[in-house]
Amino acid sequence: MTLDVIATTAAQAVIDAGRFVLRPVRKSDAGLFALYAGDRRVAEATRSIPHPLPPGAAEGFVARAIKRPADEDIWVMDGSQSALPEVLGVISLKRMDVAKYNRDQSEVGYWVAPAFWNLGIASAAVQALVDANPQANRTMFAEVFQDNPGSARVLTNAGFQYLGDAETFSVARGAQVPTWTYIRKLG
Fold it and tell me: Are residues 74 and 21 in contact, defined by beta-carbon separation less than 8 angstroms?
């Protein structure tokens, strides 16, 4: 797969991921975010999405995603140029320790709408983000819930190495959930 950064919008690159692009969030994405993130399966696979999704949550997410400057860059997995839906999912890079240590490291987060699970969408998105390295990171981290081995495979397929076990709170589950943490060193 050839990776090309297509353009830059508001200091955030549009990244070619093969069958789709990773592009900055638009206000018009809110409706599909509400539909997909409102699905219990999506919410319970994340730390921060509540279920049920409260009114205005998708619009709040969009407002946060487009605000600049930001400590997190958020992209939509957009398949509209390949006869796929405009929103397949979301992927983000959240800068870590910038103010205190400036270690050039970020945490990867992503979710894919259930209709597009098991189609390689998440794998292509994570690999494209690693290859593009739009924040010029030296290190990327990611964590997945231990009851989601598919997301763990997405990370290992993109060259992430298992770092250890932990746990984190899931808003949708209302509980601490065991996680696996991964690291990817970049050149």
Answer: no
Q: Quote the number of domains for the chain.
A: 1
Query: How deeply is 180 buried, as exposed, middle or buried, from its count of CB atoms within 10 A (0-12, 13-18, 19+)?
Result: buried
pLDDT at residue 174 is higher than 90: yes
- Cα–Cα distance, 113 to 2 (Å, whole number): 25
- Tokens linked to 166: 């932990």
Residue type, 93: L
Secondary structure string (H, E, C) spanning 63-87: HHHHCCCCCEEEEEEECHHHCCCCC
CB atoms inside a 10 Å sphere around CB 98: 14
Residue ranges making up the domain that contains 113: 15-137
5 and 15 in contact (C-beta within 8 Å)?
yes
The answer to the question of residue 31 being in a domain is yes
**Residue 156 pLDDT more than 50?**
yes
Q: What is the pTM of this model?
A: 0.92
Query: Which CATH number goes with the domain that contains 27?
Result: 3.40.630.30
